[in-house]
Amino acid sequence: MEKPCSLLVHFDKGSAAMANEIKADLEGSDGPAKADAMRRAISLLLNGETLPQLFITIVRYVLPSEDHTVQKLLLLYLEIIDRRDPAGRALPEMILICQNLRNNLQSPNEYIRGVTLRFLCRLSEPEVLEPLVPSVLTNLEHRHQFIRRHAVSAVSAIYRLPHGDQLIPDAPELVERMLASEQDASARRNAFLMLCACAQERAVSYLLANADRVAEWPDLLQMAVLDLIRKVCRSQNRANKGRYITIITSLLSATSTAVVYECAGALVSLSSAPTAVRAAANTYCQLLSSQSDNNVKLILLDRLNELRTSHRDVMVGVVMDVLRALASPNLDVKRKVLDLVLDLLTPRNVEEVVLYLKKEVVKTQAGDLEKGGEYRQMLVQTIHACAVEYPEVAGSVVHLLMDFLGDTNVAAAVDVVLFVREIIETNPKLRVSMIQRLIDTFYQIRASRVCSTALWILGEYSLSLSEVESAIATIKQCLGDLPFYTVSDEGETTDSAKPVQPVVNSVTVSSRRPVVLADGTYATQSAATEIISTPSVAPGSLASTLNLRSLILSGDFNLSAVVACTLTKLVLRLEEVQPSKVESNKACTEALLIMTSILQLGQSSYLPHPIDNDSYDRIVLCLRLLCNPGDDVRNIWLHSCRQSFAKMLAEKQFRETEEVKAKAQISHAQPDDLIDFYHLKSRKGMSQLELEDEVHDDLKAATGGFTKDADDANKLNRILQLTGFSDPVYAEAFVTVHHYDIVLDVTVINRTKETLQNLCLELATMGDLKLVDRPQNYTLAPESSKQIRANIKVSSTETGVIFGNIVYETSNVMERSVVVLNDIHIDIMDYISPATCADVTFRNMWAEFEWENKVAVNTVIQDEKEFLNHIIKSTNMKCLTPPSALDGECGFLAANLYAKSVFGEDALVNISIEKQLDGKLSGYIRIRSKTQGIALSLGDKITLKQKGGS
């Protein structure tokens, strides 16, 4: 069995290091060989060997050695070996070591003294320590600081032993006297920590007596002071709270950034006054701008976010300081900054925030910015959220963002066009300018999805005659001349609008007409060929305006259907606003020609893939509608679609409002809670900060801010029985999950009438779990209990298993007895929390993730919505499908669920179920994730939980 040691020594078990060989080398006079033999002996002991025959050899041949390396290895050896007999008493042989340790404590070499004092910190046998105490106390006044700092640590370790106050009864007094005259920073810190742990009153008295000089102390001692203040304020009354806050405030200007960071945290934990919170927030912001480490920035942003949850009114004042952290090149830092700023928006600062974000968007146009496209997308999403919450700022940003509709980063362009679509509905004052801007920039769009949304906007919100005519002209120009292809005499099909090389003398062909390009130059355009008449225009410059044509010729027939629907809406609206029937009929005829050309292209052999049935049906529907429009159909196409979109936005806003209300903390004060009226108390000697804190504490007490609801039932559910009631040793564990760590508090009860010796809790893990440290051995008296704590590291979201046994010895039977423990299954639900994401993001992740787990529906539940709610409750996920899409009774249900783990992993779930004729539900639940573990674990969880109805 492995044993604990303060030094990790590598040892290859394959090498044959026999005890006799080690013994022979130890008995020799060669120093390096003796040191190597000690290393091999320590390695064997660390790997479970006992080697009892070496002890006397080491006492005879290693103790007298003056080699420093050998002496250090000797101390490691003494640390590892069993220094007690089965009855719990110190071994008689350890008395032989005392003289050597005393000689080391009096050695003229400072290194030997120091390592020996450090070794004494790990001894717990009073019989060995008692004769060494005078030598240890002598070293408290040694001239070398290295020895003094370790001597203080040794005194502290000895005094904290169960009977340490009998070995050194005046230890606190001696250490306090030493602290008053000590100059070394580490020694002063060790002495102060000893007083904090063993004589807290002396430490507090020393601190308050030197409160004016704390700012001049070394940073090590300042950190110890902050720890003491936290401990005192948690355990004692807050009589000196004002003085403690004064000390912390003076340390906010310390030179050490670590001290400044801890001061800000301590200040918030001591006081909830706005002045204290503002000082802490300013401190975090200063560190945020001065530190270059991205991990430090992320931690500081987490602290600022914690302040926001409880002190939002104060945090609003530092929002511009937080925005300066966008200068960091790291995208994770930028994302956290933007999320934090969104939560701090108010009508007062929204214009300033949006102006700053506009400047950042302009900066992203520089080509030297790393990952500028992703950063621009985050900025667009943030500005979108700002404009939705405060529509009055939309006009200042929408025209700037519309310049990015043709962005090479498709995701950023999609976010821009979705932003435009929402603002044009919620902000009627901007519709005219936005439609004109969209028509002007439509030629720049290159992404199919962006084109589709932009066409929908043109079809729905082009209301005036000029807007409708401009929209139709823009679409016609982006489509180019018809037909989309021509067949030559040789039977070859070519693009009829393909530009040819420019010539100085242009050749005119039939149907020639002049056009103006996007860059302002002129060109001639014909149905058969296009010949640039200006030699200075580069070949293909005209093709840059034919974005719709190029996308359709690439086989995007979904876009073709959107073009047909948009033209249909525009023609129908033109008939309403155009007094001339001739112009309306001309536009209708041109739209019919475009649609038939698209159908002709889709059914030809020019493209490798023919038009799909859905797109074909939509285009044919548009043809029939234009040929024979009716009033009801006209109303549906021109009004109902926009009304449905408005309802969708209203529902989205309602869901977001409900989520905000759900996240809001609801506090209730108890009827018998004590409230102090500070108006009736004496204010003499109280600082302004203390007065503010009194008021704030009274408000929190009155509103129930200090009450925390304890979920007792949930705590009881986390207690797991590990052994049976008839076993000689009963054990149960309380499992606490702290994101990346699992803490097992195991209660072990000796149910026998005998003393259990060398009782050890042996644990092992399966999955991505790792045992941090092995619990030590204990001696358990009859019918007594012991609390054993084990820490387990978690590295991924995966269902893990912890198993093991309890091993012990009794005085009657020297053989080791084993009690096998029940397995502990770590629930994946402890690491998954509901989250939200956009539909586009969900679809992109669904297409990207490679791991999928398909679970068949097998349940006794017969209602689709009830089954969906049951799965949501069982998997701790959030339903992204809006409630309006789940309304009605049709016998079918499809919904998307989403969650994120504490490790940043995404979990996607799609539920597709159908109600059979016999009333049972059938279908599949598909889980997708980037890693295999979360997909399998979540699938197992759903398989176990889907049958139940509760």
UniProtKB/TrEMBL annotation:
<dbReference type="InterPro" id="IPR016024">
    <property type="entry name" value="ARM-type_fold"/>
</dbReference>
<dbReference type="GO" id="GO:0015031">
    <property type="term" value="P:protein transport"/>
</dbReference>
<dbReference type="InterPro" id="IPR002553">
    <property type="entry name" value="Clathrin/coatomer_adapt-like_N"/>
</dbReference>
<feature type="domain" description="Coatomer beta subunit C-terminal">
    <location>
        <begin position="671"/>
        <end position="809"/>
    </location>
</feature>
<dbReference type="InterPro" id="IPR011989">
    <property type="entry name" value="ARM-like"/>
</dbReference>
<protein>
    <recommendedName>
        <fullName>Coatomer subunit beta</fullName>
    </recommendedName>
</protein>
<keyword id="KW-0931">ER-Golgi transport</keyword>
<dbReference type="InterPro" id="IPR016460">
    <property type="entry name" value="COPB1"/>
</dbReference>
<dbReference type="Pfam" id="PF07718">
    <property type="entry name" value="Coatamer_beta_C"/>
</dbReference>
<keyword id="KW-0963">Cytoplasm</keyword>
<keyword id="KW-0333">Golgi apparatus</keyword>
<dbReference type="GO" id="GO:0000139">
    <property type="term" value="C:Golgi membrane"/>
</dbReference>
<dbReference type="GO" id="GO:0016192">
    <property type="term" value="P:vesicle-mediated transport"/>
</dbReference>
<dbReference type="Pfam" id="PF01602">
    <property type="entry name" value="Adaptin_N"/>
</dbReference>
<comment type="subunit">
    <text>Oligomeric complex that consists of at least the alpha, beta, beta', gamma, delta, epsilon and zeta subunits.</text>
</comment>
<dbReference type="Pfam" id="PF14806">
    <property type="entry name" value="Coatomer_b_Cpla"/>
</dbReference>
<keyword id="KW-0968">Cytoplasmic vesicle</keyword>
<dbReference type="GO" id="GO:0030663">
    <property type="term" value="C:COPI-coated vesicle membrane"/>
</dbReference>
<feature type="domain" description="Coatomer beta subunit appendage platform">
    <location>
        <begin position="815"/>
        <end position="942"/>
    </location>
</feature>
<keyword id="KW-0653">Protein transport</keyword>
<feature type="domain" description="Clathrin/coatomer adaptor adaptin-like N-terminal">
    <location>
        <begin position="21"/>
        <end position="472"/>
    </location>
</feature>
<comment type="function">
    <text>The coatomer is a cytosolic protein complex that binds to dilysine motifs and reversibly associates with Golgi non-clathrin-coated vesicles, which further mediate biosynthetic protein transport from the ER, via the Golgi up to the trans Golgi network. Coatomer complex is required for budding from Golgi membranes, and is essential for the retrograde Golgi-to-ER transport of dilysine-tagged proteins.</text>
</comment>
<keyword id="KW-0677">Repeat</keyword>
<keyword id="KW-0813">Transport</keyword>
<dbReference type="InterPro" id="IPR011710">
    <property type="entry name" value="Coatomer_bsu_C"/>
</dbReference>
<keyword id="KW-0472">Membrane</keyword>
<dbReference type="InterPro" id="IPR029446">
    <property type="entry name" value="COPB1_appendage_platform_dom"/>
</dbReference>
